[in-house]
Amino acid sequence: MTNEVIPNLTAFDEAALGQAFATLERQARDAASALGSPEAVEAFRLHWLGRKQGLLNEVSSRWLKAAPPEAKKALGQRFNALKSAVEALLDAASGAGPSDAALAAEAIDITLPGSRRLTGAEHPITKTLNEIVSVFAALGYSVGVGPEVETDFYNFECMNFPPGHPARDTQDTLVVANQDRRPQRDRLLLRTHTSPVQMRTMEQQAPPVRIVIPGKVHRNDATDATHSPIFHQVEGLCVDTNITFSDLKGTLDHAMKALFGSSVKTRFFPSFFPFTEPSADVQISCIFCGGKGCRKCKHSGWIELLGCGMVDPAVFAFAKEKQPAYDPKKISGFAFGMGVERIAMMKYGISEIGQFYAGDMRFLGQFA
Ligand code: PHE
Question: What is the spatial distance between Cα 307 and Cα 329, in angstroms, rounded to a whole number?
C-alpha cells in the first residue's frame, strides 16, 4: 500500500525534489486536519512515522538510496524538514484533544470580572449562643447538651414541678402523641426549658460541676413580636461546697457586663422557679437609655433578662439517687437560664423575633 503512495523519483533536481516533498507534506496536512479521535491520531502516526511501514521510512529507503551523490544533501534536508512537519502535526493532533472549534467554545475571557461565591456566616442566634457560652467557658465552665425530646420525668418531675403544675398542662407543653399507656414520668414531650440537662449532668458527674448547656426548647405559645414556639436557651449550673448567692450574683453580673458592656448594672428581683430556692429574675440597666427610662424599658430604666436561683434541695435529692455526693447538707449550687433570642434582640436592636427564622438574606447578611 505504501508503495502506491510513494512514487519512484526519476529526477533529482531542485524543482523535482521541491514538488515531490510539497506533495507529501500537503497529504500529511490534509490527513492531520481530519483527525477526530485518539485512534485516528495513532493510525496517522503509524501511517507516517511507523518504523517498518511508515511512509517516511519508505521515502528514506527508496528516494535517498536512488539519489545520485550530488543530490543526497538537498534531499536529506528536505526529508528532515518533512519529518519535523509531520511530527509537529502529530504533536498538535495528540496534544490538543478537542478540535479547535471546541476549544474556542470553551475559551475563557480573562478580562471578565470573576464570579463571587457567597461565604457562609454564623446565624445571629448561633453567634449570640456561642458568645454567651464563651463568657462562661472563660470562667472554667464546660459545655453540655441534652435531648430535645425529653421525658416528663426530666423536664418536670425531677425539677420539682409538683403534679398539676400549670407548666405541665398541654396548653404550655408540646407532648408526643399516643403516650397514654406509659406511666406519666416516661411520657415524651418537647422540652420546655434546658433545665432537665441540669439533672442529666448531675447523674453523670459528681460535684464539683460548672457547666453551661445551650439548646433548643419548645413551648406551645402563640407567636408575637417577642415570642416563638421554638427558641433557644443557655442553662448554667454550678455545684460545689460553699456556693452562695453572692457567687451567683457575682457570676451573672460579670456575664452581663461581658455581654453588654462594662457600664451595665444588674439587679436581682425575687421570683419563683420550682427547682431553685431562693429564685430571682435578673434585670440589667437599660442598654438603650443607660437607665434614664425610655420606651424599650417601659420607662423603668431596667430590662428583665434571665431567671436564676440556688438549686433547690429537692433537686439534689433526685440527683443523690444516682450520685450520693449530691448531699444538700454538704454541697450547694446555683443555676440560671437565659433566652438566646431575647439577648440577641437586645444586643442587635431587633424588634421582631420572627426575623431570626424567616431566612431573609437581607436580614441575615447584616451579621456576617
Ligand atoms: N428554666 C427556667 C425557664 O425556662 C429558667 C431558669 C433556669 C431559672 C435555671 C432558674 C434556674 O424559665
Answer: 24
Residue 287 makes CB contacts below 8 A (sequence gap 6+) with: 260, 261, 264, 303, 346
Q: Whose CA is nearest to atom 5 of ligand 1?
A: 337
**In this prediction, what percent of the chain has a pLDDT beyond 70?**
97
Q: What are the cell numbers at 222?
A: 402563640
Q: Where are the domains of the chain?
A: 14-106, 124-367
Would you place residue 1 in the very low, low, confident or very high pLDDT band (cuts 50, 70, 90)? very low
CA 349–ligand 1 middle distance (angstroms): 24
Which parts of 34-68 fold into alpha helices (H)? 38-49, 55-59, 65-66
Give the number of the atom of ligand 1 that is nearest the alpha carbon of residue 306.
Answer: 5
Q: Nearest to residue 283, comparing CAs of 273, 292, 291, 294?
A: 291
Ligand 1: residue whose CA is nearest its atom 6: 337
Residue 30 Cα to ligand 1 midpoint, Å, equals: 86
Residue in the structure block whose three cell numbers are 502506491: 4
Burial of 238 (0-12, 13-18, 19+ CB in 10 A): buried
Q: Which CATH architecture has domain 124-367?
A: 2-Layer Sandwich (3.30)
Mean pLDDT (whole number) for 24-51: 88
Q: What is the pLDDT of residues 43-56, one digit of tens each?
A: 988 999 888 888 88
DSSP helix/strand/coil, 233:
strand
- pLDDT tens string 84-123: 888 888 888 877 556 677 777 778 888 888 888 888 889 9
